[in-house]
Design brief:
This is DUF1449 family protein. It comes from Streptomyces flavovirens. Keywords: Membrane, Transmembrane, Transmembrane helix. The chain is of the alpha+beta class. The protein contains 4 helices and 5 strands. It has a 5-stranded mixed β-barrel. Strand 2 and strand 3 form a beta hairpin. The longest helix is centred in the middle third of the chain and has 30 residues. It is rod-shaped, with a radius of gyration of 29 Å. The termini are far apart.
């Protein structure tokens, strides 16, 4: 028991032990609903180190757990070797590097088997454009012709087919190139959007901040 405690409190096992405590606290918060299991997905990209395909919290938790176990085992072996001074410090550094490399390889192997249980984000859909404001790119828009430019959520733009359900009641409602329109419905069979005139002056605006 004393050997285990000495190894757990020795470098580098103590570092991974502290990280493991953080991991346990995080998953307790997930169980209580205080945070989501995918809280770090937008902040970290695990794909760059080959640990993508699952939520970042899952891959990091496994990495910390395996690193702690390997470093603990390595620390026990270092203590049993009887090495002291510089040699002992060198062995601890080797345990640190080895724990990280072994954990990375082991977690990467495990994730290959479990990626299918974490489906990727659904691809962008044209339905995402419904409710967006577009800019008309053709001289007119009718029941059988018209194109507009609309911005996607990622900042890119797309040219889409648009149609106007009814003729404009007044010249002010007629579409011309550069007019603003509102995409309010999508016709999947015809692969076009229904568009109506959009007046920016009628759009909701944020309340002005109190100057004082």
């Amino acid at each position: 028991m004393n050997e285990f405690l000495s190894a757990a409190l020795a470098f580098p096992a103590v570092l991974f032990g502290a990280a493991l405590v953080v991991v346990i606290c995080f998953w307790l918060l997930v169980l209580t609903g205080a945070v989501g299991h995918d809280s770090f997905d937008t902040d970290l990209d695990a794909d760059t180190v080959g640990l993508g395909g699952v939520p970042v919290s899952v891959s990091l938790s496994l990495l910390v757990l395996v690193s702690w176990f390997v470093s603990l085992t390595g620390s026990v072996l270092v203590l049993r070797s009887g090495a002291t001074g510089t040699a002992r410090a060198l062995f601890h550094v080797l345990v640190l590097v080895g724990a990280l490399l072994i954990a990375w390889g082991a977690v990467r192997m495990v994730l290959r088997r479990f990626r299918r249980y974490f489906p990727a984000e659904p691809p962008p859909s044209r339905q995402d454009f419904v409710g967006q404001v577009c800019t008309i790119r053709t001289g007119t828009v009718g029941a059988d012709f018209g194109q507009a430019e609309v911005a996607a959520a990622d900042g890119s733009t797309a040219i889409v087919q648009v149609r106007q359900l009814t003729p404009p009641a007044t010249p002010d409602e007629a579409f011309t190139a550069g007019s603003a329109g509102l995409l309010y419905a999508y016709d999947a069979e015809g692969e076009f959007f229904w568009v109506s005139p959009y007046d920016a002056a009628l759009a909701p605006r944020p309340l002005p901040r109190d100057a004082g």
